[in-house]
């Protein structure tokens, strides 16, 4: 196991952190007492209280000792046995997308095509002719039949309004004939590179667009106003803080112009400077393109007292499994005519990867299929060989593969050998495993959603949700990681329950390991004196309660930089 990963997966001890305060008690502006504190500190695992001076933890130990912090004059909050964990971090999140989900037609949980049609009908009734009807979140795998819908569902409902409804995975959309007409898509339109236009037996577009084919329609949509963009960011922040999130790692905005991420960065900086944003954001810029070139040219950015960090390029190597865009080594079991698709060509990627190493910019690559993961590892390995450590601005680049959903078992060890971080979303498994057996067949499922295999290799698995693809709720992600069952407690053939992780490792997946993946393990990820006071207070002890009760656990308090930014009613 490489030394740089050893500290992240070492066993924690027992007992209380810290010693009794010295003659001069630690400074403190805030004291939390009578708590059940899981510290994730290397030497001691548990404490009863902690002291915070402005934005830093100054003492962790017993409630009696903590009462002396700040000369006994600090503000004290009695947590009455509530559980405190290091500030929860979502390692893969689409911040503005979470806000837009609140502002548009939300189709999450839609039970069938008829229900989706009714939701569109009601939305059209409230819209003016010509207005775009925009929604997302549907998934057909539980429908009867479990088949992609077509424009025939939408055309009678919305003859005068273009409609675009994004599938839950964000890699496919259903559009109506009005939208196809605006985009100039007909039987003669060729599939764009990195995308597919699904067609009927006559060659006519069905209305289902996969990956980059969606861009043909979305680029015709009117751009949101600045006020709407700011509202989306604020709604996303409010929801995130209320769920106990102290930091999100934003995976960028795709298909919205080369500088879309920098426009969002400017909005965030304005919100921070106005004092109206508390959530920490570790943001990536989508590449290749002018935005990625700008980041490598100007270098990493940190602003708002460290609440905003920009130092990562996000690449989209393939599509998604549900829409059969994930790139596979062998054909899809339920559609042998395809092996998925690649979204970027190597000739574009190779110089970008070398330039990123030389400029000290991190790379995170979306790769879902086993071919996409193998190919990404090949590309990373070639870049590491081409630019040795002496030529890099950062010797340890900590490059990441986002999702790493289907990995050939022979390729797992290569993550460790190359120092590549698997950034994974547990809820994807309990969503996808209803259709993954059909897509992959039983043999390939052995390499799917293999969190535990990565952890046992000594790898820091950075846990996230991919919200708004998934709901983005920390307790759902934690439950999925430790139970590997759906929200009703069911599992199925091929779900490989042995890939569930233990409670402590699951906690590391959403605290310590995302901090490491963002080069911030010295600042956050555990509860220790000297570290930033980012904390999540929970209503129950998720390391001890029965698994179903994890889903009932709620955030009671969210603390960012020593400030209580959310408190449950």
Please characterize this protein's 3D structure.
The chain has 20 helices and 25 strands. Helices cover 31% and strands 21% of the residues. Strand 19, helix 12 (370-386) and strand 20 (400-403) form a beta-alpha-beta unit. The relative contact order is 0.14. The chain is of the alpha/beta class. It has 3 domains: 1-81 and 526-569, Urease, subunit C, domain 1 (Roll), CATH 2.30.40.10; 90-94 and 225-525, Metal-dependent hydrolases (TIM Barrel, Alpha-Beta Barrel); 105-218, Roll (Diaminopimelate Epimerase, Chain A, domain 1).
Task: Describe the structure concisely for a colleague.
This protein is of the alpha/beta class and 569 residues long.
Strand content: 15-25%
Instruction: Please tell me how large the radius of gyration is.
Output: 24 Å
Q: For the record, what is the CATH homologous superfamily label of the largest domain?
A: Metal-dependent hydrolases
Major sheet: 9 strands, mixed
Question: Number of DSSP strands?
Answer: 25
| CATH architecture annotation of the largest domain | Alpha-Beta Barrel
> What structural class is derived from the secondary structure elements?
alpha/beta
Q: What's the CATH class label of the largest domain?
A: Alpha Beta
Tertiary shape: globular
Helical fraction: 25-40%
Mean pLDDT: 93
Name the quaternary structure. single chain
Work out the count of structural domains.
Answer: 3
Number of helices: 20
Measured distance between first and last alpha carbons: 46 Å
CATH topology of the largest domain: TIM Barrel
Which parts are unreliable, with pLDDT below 50 for 5 consecutive residues or more? 9-21
């Amino acid at each position: 196991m490489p030394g740089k990963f050893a500290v992240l997966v070492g066993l924690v001890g027992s007992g209380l952190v810290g010693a009794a305060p010295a003659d001069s008690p630690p400074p403190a502006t805030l004291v939390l007492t009578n708590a059940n504190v899981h510290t994730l500190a290397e030497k001691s695992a548990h404490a009863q209280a902690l002291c915070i001076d402005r934005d830093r933890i100054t003492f962790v130990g017993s409630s009696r000792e903590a009462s002396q912090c700040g000369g006994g004059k600090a503000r004290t909050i009695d947590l009455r046995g509530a559980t405190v964990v290091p500030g929860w971090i979502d390692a893969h999140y689409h911040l503005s997308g979470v806000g837009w989900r609140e502002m548009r037609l939300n189709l999450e949980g839609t039970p069938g095509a008829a229900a989706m049609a009714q939701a569109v009908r009601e939305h059209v009734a409230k819209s003016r002719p010509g207005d775009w009807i925009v929604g997302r979140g549907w998934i057909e795998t539980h429908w009867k039949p479990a088949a992609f819908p077509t424009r025939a569902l939408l055309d009678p409902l919305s003859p005068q309004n273009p409609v675009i409804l994004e599938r839950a995975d964000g890699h496919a959309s259903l559009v109506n004939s009005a939208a196809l007409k605006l985009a100039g898509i007909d039987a003669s339109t060729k599939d764009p590179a990195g995308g597919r236009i699904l067609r009927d037996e006559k060659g006519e577009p069905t209305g289902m667009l996969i990956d980059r084919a969606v861009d043909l329609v979305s680029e015709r949509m009117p751009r949101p106003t600045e006020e709407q963009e700011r509202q989306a960011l604020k709604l996303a922040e409010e929801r995130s803080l209320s769920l106990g999130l102290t930091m999100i790692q934003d995976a960028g905005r795709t298909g919205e112009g080369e500088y879309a991420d920098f426009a969002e960065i400017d909005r965030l900086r304005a919100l921070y400077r106005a004092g109206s944003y508390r959530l920490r954001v570790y943001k990536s810029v989508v590449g290749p393109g002018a935005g990625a070139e700008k980041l490598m040219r100007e270098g990493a950015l940190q602003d708002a007292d460290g609440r905003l960090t920009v130092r990562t390029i996000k690449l989209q190597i393939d599509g998604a499994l549900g829409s059969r865009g994930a790139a596979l080594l062998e054909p899809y079991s339920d559609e042998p005519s395809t092996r998925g698709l690649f979204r970027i060509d190597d000739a574009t990627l190779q110089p970008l990867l070398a330039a990123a190493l030389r400029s000290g910019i991190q790379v995170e690559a979306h790769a879902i299929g086993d071919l996409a993961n193998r190919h990404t590892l090949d590309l990373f390995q070639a870049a590491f060989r081409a630019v040795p450590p002496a030529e890099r601005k950062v010797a340890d680049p900590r490059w990441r593969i986002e999702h790493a959903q289907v990995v050939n078992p022979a390729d797992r060890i290569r993550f460790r050998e190359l120092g590549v971080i698997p950034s994974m979303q547990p809820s994807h498994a309990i969503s996808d495993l209803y259709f993954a057996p059909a897509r992959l067949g039983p043999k390939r499922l052995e390499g799917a959603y293999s969190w535990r295999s990565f952890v046992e290799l000594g790898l820091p698995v950075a846990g996230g949700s991919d919200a708004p693809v998934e709901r983005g709720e920390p307790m759902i992600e934690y439950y999925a990681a430790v139970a590997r069952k759906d929200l009703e407690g069911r599992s199925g053939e091929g779900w490989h329950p042995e890939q569930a992780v233990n409670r402590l490792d699951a906690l590391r997946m959403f605290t310590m390991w995302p901090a490491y993946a963002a080069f911030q393990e010295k600042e956050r990820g555990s509860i220790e004196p000297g570290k930033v006071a980012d904390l999540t207070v929970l209503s129950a002890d998720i390391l001890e309660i029965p698994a179903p009760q994890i889903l009932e656990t709620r955030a009671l308090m969210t603390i960012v930089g020593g400030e209580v930014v959310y408190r449950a009613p």
